[in-house]
Amino acid sequence: MLLAGQDEALAFYQPLFGWSGSPDPNDPTKYAVQTVAGKAVAGIGMMPPSEPLMPWTGYFAVTDLEAAVARIGANGGGVIVGPMEAPGHGRFAHGTDPAGAHFGLWEAGPFPGFQIWGEPGCMTWFELVTTEGKSSAEFYAALFECTAEPMDAMPDAYWTLQVEGQPRAGIFQVDASTKPYWRPYFLVRNPDEAAAAAQAAGARLVNPPMDTPFGRMATLNDPNGIEIRITSMPEEMPEGM
Predict the structure, then answer these.
(1) C or N: which end of the chain has fewer Cβ atoms within 10 Å?
(2) pLDDT class for 87, splitting at 50, 70, 90?
C-alpha cells in the first residue's frame, strides 16, 4: 500500500494486526516492510499528497518477469510499470486485467516477499471483485499458467485460481457496476474484537461480523477508505477453497 498518510496507516494497522516495521530512510517511498514474528507479511510506503493512494496491491510471484509481462498484453491486459528493479530485493511490474483491476508481479531476489501466510495478523486470502468473472478467470489462468476452477456452490459466481491443485486466490462475480479490484483478507483470532478495535481507531464498519462457511468475517474501510476483510479460520474449509 502506498499513500500520503504513511504514519497514520502504520498507527492503524500495527496494533490491529500485531505488526512491526519502520520506514526505510533509503527508499524513495520510505517503504516499511511489516513483520509478524520477524517474518515479512505486508508493506506500507509513502506517496506525495498530490498522487492518488495505492490500496493494498497483491504481488503475484513469477519466475520469469519478462515472460509474465508479455502474457499480460497477449491476453488483453495492460502494463502500467515495469519490469523494474527493486535494488537489493527483486524485480517487479504492475499491470491491469482486461476489466481494469490493478495487480503486481514479483520476481524474487534476496527478498522473497510474503514469508507468512494464513496465520493471525497475516493475509490469508486475496480476492478479485469484478463484473467480468468468467473472462477474468480465463485471463489470470493464462497469465499465471494455472487453472481457474468454478466453485461447486457458486459455479457462475466464484472461481479459485489453483496451482498444482491448491487454491491461491479467488475471483468473485458481482452484478453491480463496481470498478474491479483485488481485496485482501486478514486472519484474526477474534473478528468481533478486531472489528471493534478497528472502529475505535477510525475505520468504518461496512459489514458487521457474521458467520460464513469460510469463517466469521467482517468488512471494513480503514481510515483512508481502503477496504479490507478480517476473518477467522473455519474448523473445516469448504471443498475447493
Answers:
(1) C
(2) confident
